[in-house]
Amino acid sequence: MQSVELSLGAALRDVTARRTTAVDKAVASLAQAMLTELSRPGPAWRAADDHERGSEVVAAFRTFITDEEAPPPRRGMAAIGLGTIGEPALLDLVQGWLKREGDAPDAVFLRECALISISFVGTAAPRDAPERERALRLIRKAMKSDLPDMRFQAALALVEVAGNDADDDLRNALAAETHTAVRESIVEAIGLLSPPSAATCRALQAVVDSEDGTHGVGFDAAMALADARKASARPRLLDALAVRAHRDRALEALAALGKAESADCERVWAIARRWWLPAVTRVRAAYALVRMMGPGNDAEARAMLDRFTWHPRPAVREAVTDARAALAKLGTPATP
To answer: What is the per-residue burial (b if ≥16 Cβ within 10 Å, else e) of 23-40?
Structure first.
C-alpha cells in the first residue's frame, strides 16, 4: 500500500483551503488516506461504506468532479480518487467526459482520467455486479472511438477489468489499428494477458515479422511473445541487443525463454564481456546466459555472475541478488 502525504483528517480539512497547492495535495491524498485507515489496497469496492468519514470523502470528490470551473487536473484527480475507492456513482459522473471532442490538452486529459477511473470501478466491482458490465461497455465503446487517445487508454483499461476475456477484443483491435502509439498500447495490453491465446500469439508474430528494425511495436510484440514463452520471439530480441534503450529488457526476455542455441548465446556473451557497458546490464547478460546455456554448460556464466557479488555499487549487488533468487526459484541456484 502506498504511503500518503496527508492523513485523512488533514486531507478533508484542506479540500476547502484557500491555497491551490493545499487543495490539490488534499485531493491527491484523500482516497489513499482512507484506504490506509481501512488497511485495504485500492481499487476497493464501495470502500466509503466501511469508513465513518466515507461520505465526506465521496462528497469532496463529487464537488470537484462536477465543478466546471475547477482546474481540469483537480477534476481528473478527483475522478481517479473516486474510482480508487470503488464508488459506483463515478460512472455517471465521468461518462460525459468521454464525449468531449477535439485534441485540446484539457479534453484529452479528462478523457484519460475518465477511462482510468472507470477501469478502477470495473476492477473493484464484484464479477457479477452490473457496474462491472457497464464499465466494460464504456471501455469497449472507447476502443472504437475516432480519437486515438481514447483507443490508446481503452486497451489497457480493458485488460485491467476483463483480464483474459479481453483477448479477442485486443486481437481484433490490433488487426484494425493503424496509429503507431495505439498499436503499441494494444500490444502492451496483450502482454498483460496470462497468457494470450494461440490466435493472438499468431497476431503478435505477424507484427514481429512485418515491422522494420528493432524499434517500436515490433519489439513490444516480441516482448509479449516472450512473456507467453514463445521461442519465435528470440531472433527479434537478439537484434534488440544492439539498441541501447531495449537492451536490458531484451536480456530479461531472453532469460525467460530459457535454453538456446550456442550461436544465440554468443550474441549475449558479446554483451556480457563488454567491460564498458553498465555493470547492471552485464549482470543481466550473465543471468540470461545461465538460463540460455542450461545446467552443465553454464559454469562460465555463473562465474561471471559471481564476480559482481562484491561490486562497489549497491544497484549491481542488488541485481546479483535478484538473479540468484530467480535461479533458486527455478531450481538452479547460483553459486554462493
So the answer is: bbbbbbbbbbbbbbbbeb
Per-domain residue ranges for the chain? 1-143, 162-257, 259-336
Distance CA 119, CA 320 (A): 37
pLDDT tens readout for residues 72-131: 999 999 999 999 999 999 999 999 999 998 889 999 999 999 999 999 999 999 999 999
DSSP state of 186: H
CA–CA gap between residue 144 and residue 159 (Å, rounded): 15
* Fold of the domain built from segment(s) 1-143: Leucine-rich Repeat Variant (1.25.10)
The region that residue 39 occupies, defined by phi over 0 for left and psi between -120 and 50 for alpha, beta otherwise, is: left
Instruction: Tell the residue number behind the cell numbers 473493484, with chain if given.
Output: 124
CA distance 272 to 194: 31
- Neighbouring C-alpha atoms within 13 Å toward the C-beta of 151: 21
Cell of 121: 470501478
Task: Give the integer Cα–Cα distance in Å for 35 and 8.
Answer: 9
Q: Whole-angstrom Cα distance, residue 261 to residue 293?
A: 8
Give the residue carrying C-alpha cell 465521496.
58
- Identify the residue whose cell numbers are 563488454: 274
